[in-house]
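Allow me, if you will, to draw on your knowledge of protein folds for a short while. I am sending you one protein, given as its amino acid sequence and as whole-number tokens for its backbone shapes. Kindly check, if you would, that the fold set down in the tokens agrees with what the sequence suggests. The record follows directly beneath this note:
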Amino acid sequence: MVEGRRMAVLNAIVSDYVRTREPVASRALAERYCLGVSPATIRNDMAALEAEGYINQPHTSAGRVPTHKGYRSFVDHIAAIKPLSGPERAAIDRLLAGVVDLNDVVEGAVRALAELTGQLAVIEYPSLRHVHLRHLELVPLPPRRLLLVIITDSGQVEQRTLAVAQEYLNDLSSLETLRQRLNQALVGTHSSEISAVVSTLLKQTEPDMRSLMHQIAAQLVAALQSDVEERLVVAGTANLARTTADFSSLEPLLDAVEEQVVLLRLLTGATDQPSQSVSVSIGEENGQEALAEASVITTSYQTAEGGGVARLGVLGPTRMDYPAAMASVQAVANYLSRYFNQGAQNQ
């Protein structure tokens, strides 16, 4: 564990290297940072930091660069995540102005996160397994099909098409009665309780409509309670291409990004953190050879009243502006949580 003055020296090395991508020498630290000691003392501190594995000397020059251990110590000593500046908040507002539905919100948020951090940004859509039902619609479609539209309190819209007997489509009055009955019984119901409610509805449905009700109930339960694949939205892949010099080879990393299961695995740690906590995984901590030279910053956002969460984060080189990236990740998570909580309160 680095303490005291040596921690200040390590912080200065990390900050300078992130800014310049040039190995940092003791003279540069003495000139650029108010460390309160002579270049000779700084050299002694740098020698100690190198001996302990926090920095190394990549070439024969006098400069040093942080190691993964150095970055970890730097991140662990960040006392508090700084608030975004006025221009940074304005960037979020600009990219999220005029959003009208869930897709707009998530896509605007991931673009804002990529722009603010200059990294690859990833946001997970809210899960349908942690929502309340807002509205159901039944729409007859030719020939002999019925469209089931499911709208949740998080703004998600799920559509299922059913093949049904023509007699049901000819009886629009009975369809409307069934739609009203479904909404009356199910609106406001949590997804975990849908199955029990529709089971009761099936028993109460008239025999001539029971077959159709059974089809609708099966599709509704499948949509809201099945183990559906998580959906991710990604922005800023081009940002990785601009950091080629930070990787010995960028191709394995880009291949890993193409695999959504890899991104999901990277984001998983966010749900294990306390609410509003930001997690940073550096280099080998990512558990993927392709990401051994990358860092991942993640957190979660609240998607539904009562604790439903989804994840978001950024991926980039270990030579990353950690304080700024952590602040941006948290700020976008806070925005998404406010959006979904306000939506729930307005139901």
